[in-house]
């Protein structure tokens, strides 16, 4: 699929007229559905508000930080992601069946959905554009190391890479390795280190010096 | 269907372009397209597999040049029209011209949090036993249905190993066609990179898909 945004200015101008057409089309459908009573305006606003403000990668960061400090929770999370994550209040839409994948010094996990855009909304919110776009979906399964390079990441040659193509209703999240130099940190502070991309497998957590 | 959505292993799309500090939505209409799709799904009564098929069921050149929410919105319009909830003449003038059809349920603002938290679990009770266990070698079937399926082309015909028996889940191939949930055993199946991509493949890479039993043969 095409990127909806571009750093190329000419392309951006072209998109301008297309966007107004989309504004007209979405407004037409919204009006018709409201007039027919199929939808409620306040529910539309609530849905947008929920995914802009309430459900996002901070949820997943809490899960990871808890796994880093609580060995019993970590074990539960890896055995039954849905139940362990549910105990923190996260689940439901795009998160009814959650699987946590733990990175280790010898194993790196990376999540993709080649067929559409399956993503663990309940813990990470809505997926970023690159996750839904053709470059990532096409290459993540064939050349994950090449994709990681696009993110500025290089793993040792002997690190095993497991790519997980989300073809069913299981939703995968990666538990990245805890950064060094964080001994004794609280869950809240650790959660600040956990990035969205580190939970997809296309990035690492921040290091303590990044927080300063 | 072997459509524009099934792109695992294709070349030439260029590098991944992460966007620093990306907003959740890139324009106002994307917000509307997203929320309208979720809300109208409650009234329209279609399932997730029907939605996915409505998105992918278009010429590959269209699929690959439309933006993500353009595809969502086109699918929403198609599903509303298919069920005669909205008509072309209404879309042309941007207002309702006909009396509404009765619908069983409407999403209310007060219910949004509860409905999202319930989500759409797809695991189902079964009396059947799974045909495979972890460690079994299996071959992904060679199949090319023109209807909805979730077995990507890049694994078809290839040998893999059952990683995990997940449970009995709604079968998208049936559910998308309105032929019922037809739950089937679901497995995580892992393939070596070399099996999928040939001798030049990176030996440190494996790829898994989640595959329903009708997609698999004993090997």
Describe the fold and architecture.
The complex is a heterodimer of chains A (212) and B (219). By secondary structure, chain A is mainly alpha-helical. Chain A has two domains: 38 residues, no CATH class; 156 residues, Nitrile hydratase alpha /Thiocyanate hydrolase gamma (Nitrile Hydratase, Chain A), CATH 3.90.330.10. Helices cover 49% and strands 11% of the residues of chain A. In chain A, α3 crosses α4. Chain A is globular. The two termini of chain A are 38 Å apart. Chain B is of the alpha+beta class and 219 residues long. Chain B has two domains: 91 residues, Orthogonal Bundle (Cyclin A, domain 1), CATH 1.10.472; 82 residues, SH3 type barrels (Roll). Chain B is built from eight helices and five strands; from the N terminus they run ααααααββαβαββ. Chain B has a five-stranded antiparallel beta sheet with strand order 4-3-2-1-5. At the A-B interface, α1, α2, α7, α8 and α9 of A face α1, α2, α3, α4 and α6 of B.
Mean pLDDT of chain A: 93
Strand neighbour order, sheet with most strands of chain A: 1-4
The first-level CATH class name of the largest domain in chain B: Mainly Alpha
- What is the CATH superfamily of the largest domain in chain A? Nitrile hydratase alpha /Thiocyanate hydrolase gamma
Instruction: Using the CA coordinates, give the radius of gyration of chain B.
Output: 20 Å
Identify the CATH architecture of the largest domain in chain B: Orthogonal Bundle
Number of domains of chain B: 2
In whole angstroms, the N-to-C terminal distance of chain B is 25 Å
E-strand count of chain A: 4
The global form of chain A is globular
Short structural summary:
Chain A is mostly helical and 212 residues long. Helix content of chain A is 49%, strand content 11%. In chain B, helix 1 (28-44) runs parallel beside helix 4 (68-82) and helix 2 (48-56) crosses helix 4 (68-82).
